[in-house]
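To illustrate the input format used throughout this study, we show a single complete record. The first block contains the structure-token representation of the backbone; no residue identities are included at this stage. The design step must infer an amino acid for every position from geometry alone.
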């Protein structure tokens, strides 16, 4: 039986986040440049977005480029930005047909102008969709996001529009890039690395973590379904005891 058929429909996570890792190592297996791996990573994105739509996930957040990734060699950064523009151009029509909406989190203004323009074009074109929301994390890092939120909250306090006593979890949520999404219940990282790399630190406070050795260009929707199957077989206690959950 396929993993998809084993999933409990009522317990599909609303939000799944993925750290898409291992493109460079995948390319190296074939003696190719790292950018070859990034190019093939697009096929994995296509499959996973399709799979997420099929099982009714509401939000799929993909970590595509971190703040730290700006430190990579210029040729690689340029190749990634070019690929991003290409992929958005190529995929937007299909995403529209699939009723997918697009959103971006991260320091969008730090991206090259043509990338910003292409993103804005696609977001606008897909704004009428009512199915899956695909969230791309671009020039994103969680510490950056939290510092930005704190700065804006401090500004409100300074203006006398907010009392420090009013600052709570809900208010913090409102100031994050993810304010319109539920927290991810499941975080997947490919390539065997077991770290978070500055991704959604606040939002994954209670997420289930799933690490797979598969390199990102080899990842397909069936792997997503397997991760969700694993997720559905975990007991999420949120600090309570097992017994409390039963009763
Ligand atoms: C993930 O693959 C893609 C990005 C971070 C943009 P990597 O490029 O990190 O590939 P590895 O981890 O070096 O194999
Ligand atoms: C994390 O992958 C960032 C993205 C997937 C976009 P990296 O490959 O950059 O992370 P590290 O360097 O292994 O922590
Ligand atoms: Mg990596």
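Output of the design step:
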């Amino acid at each position: 039986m396929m993993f998809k058929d084993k999933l409990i429909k009522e317990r599909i996570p609303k939000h799944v986040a993925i750290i898409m890792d291992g493109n460079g190592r995948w390319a190296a297996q074939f003696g190719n440049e790292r950018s070859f791996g990034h190019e093939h990573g697009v096929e994995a994105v296509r499959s996973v977005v399709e799979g997420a739509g099929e099982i009714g996930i509401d939000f799929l957040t993909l970590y595509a480029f971190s703040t730290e990734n700006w430190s990579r060699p210029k040729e690689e950064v340029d190749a990634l930005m070019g690929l991003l523009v290409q992929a958005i151009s190529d995929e937007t029509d299909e995403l529209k047909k699939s009723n997918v909406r697009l959103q971006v989190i991260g320091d969008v203004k730090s991206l090259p102008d043509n990338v910003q323009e292409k993103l804005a074009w696609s977001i606008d074109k897909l704004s009428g969709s009512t199915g899956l929301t695909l969230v791309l994390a671009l020039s994103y890092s969680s510490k950056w996001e939290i510092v930005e939120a704190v700065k804006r909250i401090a500004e409100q306090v300074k203006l006398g529009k907010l009392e420090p006593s009013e600052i709570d979890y809900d208010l913090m949520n409102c100031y994050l890039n993810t304010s319109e999404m539920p927290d991810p219940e499941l975080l997947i990282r490919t390539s065997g690395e077991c770290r978070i790399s500055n991704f959604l630190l606040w939002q994954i406070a209670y997420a289930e973590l799933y690490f797979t050795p598969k390199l990102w260009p080899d990842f397909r929707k069936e792997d997503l379904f397997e991760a969700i199957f694993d997720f559905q077989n975990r007991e999420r206690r949120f600090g309570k005891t097992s017994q409390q959950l039963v009763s």
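Structural context for interpreting the output: Strands lie at 15-19, 59-66, 101-105, 133-140, 186-189, 208-211. The chain has one domain: 12-141+185-232.
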